[in-house]
Design brief:
alpha/beta, six-stranded parallel β-sheet, globular, binds adenosine-5'-diphosphate, binds zinc ion
Length: 743
């Protein structure tokens, strides 16, 4: 008798165990990674994944239940994926079921999406027979036309045949029964590509710097080798990535490329397919369910051997990975926003270790944490600090907005930005305007009583959206019409404060009424191909200005954009978060990189109330290294990562008291452990979360700051172990390490 160790798909700490089932004789082909149905308590048969098969068990045989049946005939997860799931479970304090779920797309798990089949019709009789039949039929009849069409075009979808011949159910049935034609079904492939098979593009001749980097990568192709590639925007990182992949996959290996949000970079995907062909699969959240399922299957079956995708693509069922690339390594979107809060880059590093292959983290503005690690030798730093086409970085002009104000300019555009916009448009060139806030205004306040209008479900102010004349909550989507009178005091003096992208668009069109704009933010880019269609208007020249949030900062290459305006740099810089300086530097640098990439020289105008701030000065000089030196000093002085670790434990519940009590109970346990750790613990506090109520849920948090010291992993494990039993059915516990967004 053999026994299967099974992780059941139940997301509950209590059942985070591995259960043993006996394997019936008929299912003797069971192996690790297969999904099975197993009896589980009163729930009947539920799904599980086999993580191990053994010949013996210590358990009493009469108590053992049998595996009910197999869901898959081939292993669904391979050994590597199970290894990674175990690592994720430990690293992110998740259950094994949580971790395994990451590797199985929701569509597959729920069994909702199936392989799609289409009905096909073909001629099945020999040519001679067909000719005889055709001769016996009257020309013009449907049966005659069916045969002629099939003879001319070959096999055809039934629906298409019906379309060409006209409704032909009866005659088709007759021909089938006579054995002249045959009906069969074929697997349909749902394709996420807008261009089915793009023309192949030739490889570029790499410049010296690119060649050096490529050589270094290829040299370590058969070993774990982590690289941090600091390459300025336009230095040709993408070409290096693609050539490295091409070389390495030629030896029967596979590759993963992670990009921050792939739907934002259709150009990048197209480039990959032009150079690397149909073996490229794409995985991202904006794909249709069916498309995702089919792409995932192409990877599983080896039809696709290069995967390019957003965060979750790191879980793709690839075998024998030869290289992993992470583009825009500094982006916060690589960290999951839901439990388990994995960092896709950390997972990628584990995969690279498992596969003994190089991993390249590329960025024009590397994250301060990893650049520091590179200095310590954890990553090999490689650099490409010049643009591939030899063009200089565009000059950046910093405008002091307090001066504008004292000169009497109350609009959102400074004189300098305005003049530059005029001259750019007069030359038929294009403009990008960047603002860190979507919607029309940031909040709505009554000037009579001073109240701001807030969300019903969350403790946050609502944002005005001018196109629908509504106030909207950016956290839960709650919406109300813009009130005419203050809901608190009835005054009519309610006013919008602060500018969002809609307002910038409106002001721009007031100044240039005959121009066309494209606005890109979450509100305009919801549809699957929305980005593509918006960007197309810029590419074909029908729009003259692109206005948007950080999503326009990434990877677009528009040769005719020569002016970039950062409308308000302070919005980001003043955020109460230790990473706000890093983010501001990165965003200004990234958007600056969009200007003047081709023939015409570019120009950047940054509007700010703090022109002397080192972040603004370093960004103006395109000087990452000076920025890093100053920033790392501040981090050290203030005990922020990478010198310390911030841990946030958030308790969330519909019931206010329960959330509060949960955090209190946990804090009691944690404090005991922290006290033992002496002065390695810098700070610990329990309080309401910055947004105390979100989507009708109450939120309380524990914040801890610990120095990075030798025993930190051990301490952190103990902390989490001590609070394991506190979360229950309706009280959620969310653990965040160095949290990205702390609302
Ligand atoms: P990055 O990803 O570093 O911002 P890209 O890879 O997008 O830069 O390259 C910027 C531009 O330079 C692209 O238009 C690309 O085709 C071009 N380019 C890259 N490498 C070379 C090269 N060796 N010779 C000529 N042009 C190049
Ligand atoms: Zn009021
Ligand atoms: Zn809300």
């Amino acid at each position: 008798m053999k026994y299967a160790l099974v992780v059941v798909d139940v997301l509950n700490q209590d059942v985070d165990k591995i259960f043993t089932y006996a394997i019936p004789e008929a299912l003797n082909n069971i192996c690790v990674g297969m999904r099975v149905l197993v009896p589980f308590g009163r729930q009947g048969n539920i799904e599980g994944v086999v993580v191990s098969v053994s010949d013996t068990t210590d358990l009493p045989l009469d108590k053992l239940k049998y595996v009910h049946s197999l869901i898959d005939s081939v292993p669904f997860l391979n050994e590597e994926q199970i290894f990674l799931a175990k690592w994720i479970k430990k690293q992110y304090h998740a259950t094994m079921a949580d971790a395994l779920r990451l590797f199985i797309p929701a569509q597959v798990r729920a069994g909702k999406v199936k392989t799609k089949y289409i009905q096909m019709i073909k001629l099945s009789a020999s040519k001679e027979q067909t000719d005889v039949v055709l001769g016996s039929l009257k020309p013009g009849t449907k049966a005659h036309r069916i045969i002629s069409v099939l003879a001319e075009y070959g096999d055809m979808e039934k629906s298409r045949l019906n379309h060409i011949v006209g409704a032909c159910y009866e005659p088709l049935k007759k021909l089938i029964s006579k054995g002249i034609v045959k009906e069969y079904s074929e697997e349909a492939v749902r394709s996420p590509y807008l261009d089915i098979a793009p023309e192949r593009a030739p490889w570029l001749n790499l410049n010296r710097k690119q060649n050096e980097v490529l050589d270094e990568i290829i040299l370590s192709k058969n070993q774990f080798a982590p690289f941090l590639l600091h390459g300025v925007t336009g230095s040709g990182k993408t070409e290096v990535y693609m050539q490295a992949i091409n070389k390495i996959t030629a030896e029967n290996k596979t590759a993963v490329v992670l990009v921050p949000e792939i739907s934002l970079t259709p150009q990048m995907v197209l480039n990959f397919r032009k150079k690397l062909g149909d073996g490229v699969a794409i995985l991202h959240s904006a794909l249709g369910q069916g498309e995702r399922f089919d792409e995932w299957k192409r990877i599983l079956t080896g039809q696709a051997h290069i995967v390019i995708g957003a965060r979750s693509a790191i879980f793709a069922p690839l075998k024998n990975i030869g290289i992993i690339i992470v583009d825009e390594e500094h982006e916060s979107s690589y960290v999951s926003e839901t439990h388990p809060r994995y960092d896709a880059i950390e997972v990628a590093i584990q995969r690279a270790k498992y596969n003994n292959c190089p991993i390249v983290l590329g960025s024009a503005t590397p994250s301060v944490n990893r650049y520091y690690k590179a200095q310590k030798g954890e990553f090999k730093l490689v650099e490409m600090l010049r643009r591939a086409n030899g063009k200089e970085m565009p000059p950046v002009s910093v405008v002091d907005m307090t001066e504008e104000f004292s000169k009497g300019n109350r609009t959102i555009f400074s004189q300098e930005l305005y003049e530059n916009m005029c001259s750019t448009l007069s030359k038929d060139q294009q403009i990008m305007l960047f603002l860190n806030r979507r919607g029309y205004s940031s909040f709505v306040m009554c000037r009579a009583c001073g109240e701001t209008i807030t969300c019903e479900n969350c403790d946050v102010s609502l944002t005005y959206h001018s196109n629908v004349d509504k106030l909207r909550c950016h956290y839960c989507g709650y919406e109300i019409p813009m009130p005419k009178l203050c809901p608190y005091c009835g005054s009519k003096f309610i006013k919008q404060f602060g500018a969002g992208t809609q307002k910038v668009e409106e002001e721009f069109l007031k100044l240039f009424p005959d121009k066309k704009t494209v606005r890109m933010d979450i509100d305009t880019t919801r549809g699957k191909d929305a980005h593509y269609h918006l960007l197309k208007q810029l590419a074909d020249g029908s729009a003259q200005a692109l206005i948007g949030t950080q999503m326009i900062a990434k990877g677009h290459d528009f040769p005719n954009v020569t002016l970039v305006g950062v409308v308000a740099a302070d919005g980001m810089l003043r955020m109460p978060d230790y990473r706000s300086r890093e983010r501001t530097f990165s965003l200004i640098t990234q958007v600056s990189g969009r200007a003047g990439r081709a023939e015409n020289p570019g120009k950047v105008v940054v509007q700010t109330y703090s022109p002397q701030h080192f972040v603004i000065e370093c960004a103006k000089n395109h000087d990452y290294k000076s920025f890093f030196e100053k920033e790392i000093e501040q981090r050290k002085a203030m005990w922020y990562p990478p010198f310390a670790r911030i841990i946030r434990i958030l308790y969330v519940c519909e019931d206010a008291e329960k959330a509060y009590n949960g955090s209190l109970q946990a804090y009691d346990k944690i404090r005991v452990l922290l006290q033992k750790s002496g002065d390695n613990v810098l700070y610990s506090e329990r309080s309401q979360a910055p947004i105390g109520r979100l989507q009708e849920m109450y939120r309380h948090q524990i914040l801890i700051k610990i120095k990075e010291f030798d025993g930190i992993e051990d301490l952190v494990d103990k902390l989490f172990d001590s609070i394991k039993g506190i979360a229950e059915k309706d009280l959620y516990c969310d653990i965040q390490i160095n949290p990205v967004n702390m609302f």
